[in-house]
Amino acid sequence: MLGRRILAAVAFVSACAQAQLSITNPSPSSWWVSGAVNTLAWTCGTSPYSAYTVVLSNSDSAILSGALALIANVPNFDCSFTVNEQQSSLQVSSTYTLSLANIQNLTDVYASTQFEVKAAGSVYPTSSASSSATGTSTAGSASSTSSSKTGAATANYIPVGMSMAAALVLGLVVA
Ligand SMILES: *[C@@H]1O[C@H](CO)[C@@H](O)[C@H](O)[C@H]1NC(C)=O
Q1: Locate the Yeast cell wall synthesis Kre9/Knh1-like N-terminal domain: which residues (predicted)?
Q2: 121 phi and psi, to 5 degrees?
């Protein structure tokens, strides 16, 4: 009985101590706009991980035939990442999944969220973190702030189907 209680207490404590990572933007209610400057944000303060590869996938293989490493290496301490117009030039679809994965093993997914990419020129939800970043897809002040942000992380496209190891070998990724 006492043993059980101790076990339960240990389980409780370790569950509480276990740091959590979740993606705060985008989300099922906070979309990205195709070709615009979009915001990726996560709970950096409670994350046990130091860096991520941002992986995009879609349940519709006509949109994306496999996992796409959108951003190779984003440090956790950045807390958010400004996805530039080029990185955001995605096909419009409501069935995207965005994941934060182990930079050495893309199938080791730490956190993921469903989200939608709306047509270029769409407005953001008013409560979205991305609404303050830019209202439209035009390259204005928002993109100049994004370029300083992207400098901190290595933003590279890795061809669909290429393994992280292969990408590393080819020098596409700065690990
Ligand atoms: C990559 O991660 C997956 C899921 O965590 C795991 O099953 C697999 O063994 C890992 N692969 C390597 C090479 O570490």
Answers
A1: 26-117
A2: 90, -10
